[in-house]
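Lecture notes, structural biology module. Today: joint structure prediction for complexes of two components.
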Amino acid sequence: MFFANPQSLTDFVKSPKNDAKIARRLWVCGGPGCLAAGSAALLTALENAAKAAGLSEKPELRTDMTGCLGLCERGPLVGVEPEGHLYEKVVPADAEELIERTLKKGELIERLVNDPKNPGRQEHPFYKPQTSLIMRRMGRIRPDSLEDYLSADGYKALALALGELSPEEVSRRVEASGLRGRGGGGFPAGLKWSSCRLAPGEIKYVIANGDEGDPGAFMNRSLMEGDPFAVVEGLTLGAYAVGARSGFIYVRHEYPLSVERLERAIAQAEKCGLLGRNILGSGFDFHLETVEGGGAFVCGESTALMASIEGREGQPRVKYVRSVERGLWDCPTLLQNVESWANVPLIVEKGPDWFASLGAKNNSGTKVFSLVGQVRRSGLAEMPLGSPIRVLVQDVGGGARPGRTIKAVQTGGPSGGCLPLSELDLPLDFDHLPAAGAIMGSGGLIVMDDLSCMVDVARYFTNFLKGESCGKCAPCREGLGLILRILEGLCRGQGHPGDGQELQSLGRSLSLTALCGLGQSAANPLLSTLRYFAEEYQEHEEGFCRSGRCQGLFHPAIDPDVCTGCGACAKACPSSVISGGKKEPHVVDLDGCISCGACLAACRFGAAKAVRKK
Amino acid sequence: MTKQQFIHVDADATVKPMPQTSDLVSGTIDGREVAVPWGTTLLEAAASIGTVIPTLCHHPALPPDGNCRLCLVEVDSRLAASCLFPLRRSGFSVSTESPKVFEARAFVLKLLLSRAPNDEYLKELAVKYEAAPDPRLGDLADGCVRCGRCVRACQATGTEAISLVGRSQERQVTGPFFEPPAQCVGCLACAKVCPTGYIVFSEERTSRSIWGRDFEMVLCPICGEPVGSLQELARAGAAEELCPACRRRAMASALVSGPGLSL
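The predicted structure, tokenised, for the full assembly:
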């Protein structure tokens, strides 16, 4: 397989291939969540069962691993092609039945689907509100197969660009699409592209930022592992547009599978004439390689990332002169998040108007969100930009867990903000979130319920950011330490009147004075919780935690009118101080209670509550 | 140097060619008109009209780093580190003592003072900006403000014996593996640029000690005064060297008695 010109690529896709004969396929999810839940063992079990059933001679019935299917909470997942059914929580013991009934006969196994009346993935409440662009090949291709990628419209954009479009036109399409950077800031991508294209310099670089460091975020990882060629093709288009001949994909060290898949994709593309010298016979050269990060959160910041590639300490620099003018090794550099890059082939192929028609005003396209925390269905969800948070939390995520109510949604990772219930109708886009004190970030969404203490949440994120502060500038290095000390005091019951007010002023000063984006946004968790949950700070100053999270700052009390006498709290109590008869209201004996909050978490009816200490 | 055509990105999201590097840009600093060559830093522009902006990590002989945040000023209602901010467009309006700047400096000073509470310069600024170290930061007072002037000086000499290591509040200046740095030549450049006197050294006529290492001094063959450490002079490619005073004298006498000065 070698493509000497754009036409040969088009001919190859049109030619009949073995895959065209596939009658049915079981797609085992190979996303991070499902792999952790044992989907690799499941695939082995399925392959063994297929062999035992004599299917190794029948290439039309297959079992394969694909990229992330999204509904991680219910993994390991198996998708059935062509029926489109989605099996949840599949274990190796189900393998034989899956082969015999589903793969061979096309039958539905009812106990493995969410709703037997609507067994398809499209009708599933988790998927119904979603729009799949970035994730569209998940469940349709094997991530490490170039042939699969080609048959799923892969490299169509590059063939078009190198065959018919000038670099200016490729750049123009991205500019006109209104694409905004998916890494967090939402900087207009077209502006970066045109600036970098026009910047003087013989040598230019393109870089993909895959240093996804936010706790609980895994959308970039799923993309790199599930559809690596999309990132490679995007970078190739970018290099063509701005005139770069070298590029790097910076992947965090903790993602070995991403590195492996990307490197395999690069090697295959090089072998087939889609990367390297004289791509598709056009005379355009582009060399691409991966770089592994060393594990510093701050290296997700663009200038620190470039310092890291150069082999220097990963520290940000002041960006008065932008990277598109002077970036990697002081050359003009176009750096984007991997998800931004994956959007590029779509924009080039389908046109900027089509892309701009998706999403909201000034916020074209979709965004992949990692929905985690206290919701019924967590996982990866791709939504048009501008979708209300409520749709993601209530419809996709299924709302709060039994007996709980949702209190806040934290968006944008550790330096994002906590939004209260009243802000849930806010559109998820690059303009509305910052106005409300949160950020889009890379798309993390952590749902918190009434057991989450907002002061403790601020303490947690501040602690994370303090540990990840590179220590270059004084405000971030020492200021976060000071803020953390005060927050820790509040959570231990050693707060003072006026702490909230002082934190407000410290947070504001930190945002004003820090050197880089990390420091400037590091006060967001603090400032947003102060803005929306000021009463909790006030209570902590007085030594009370209403959420029952900060140990020693509350007494548990069971509401006899609500208690059903199920005994779950008594079972959870480590000090055995809860008593009560079956189906009778239970009582806590405070003498001996360590106020750990286990009973509050155990109660499914909201009867156990935190009250002020007497 | 060849002239480069620079580009810049405007706030109104258009790309425009930059003016030539020899052009002047003009604007106001604290209401006073100023015109400087394109690309001049704000700190330099302010100095050119006699406006003093407090600095700590800045040193005229070293590349700017912008880490201490003391030199923040308000440019078109946003804060910017003046030691790094290049003036590349006319019409700028800078305020070096606005309420926002005052608040920022007070905050930064409070934090820097927790590291070096006895530094005279910081104490002086603290009075002006009404700042005091916060006892809740704990005892961090080791005297080092982590400005990295020492590290940049060591880099500038080409030695690179010391560096800033560690993240967050663990960040500190040290040799590799927290050991006396093997690359150190005992030139004392780091100690000389340290703004707080944190880097200690001892010096006698025949020896010198810094960073846990001892160095032998080369003595001037004429007057016997110390010239520099053996390694320091070896790095400069001069194993035997007269002290500055004797060198001047030797040159002067060569000029008077000889046919001319050969350098």
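Point to remember: The domain at 7-97 of chain B is CATH 3.10.20.740 (Ubiquitin-like (UB roll)).
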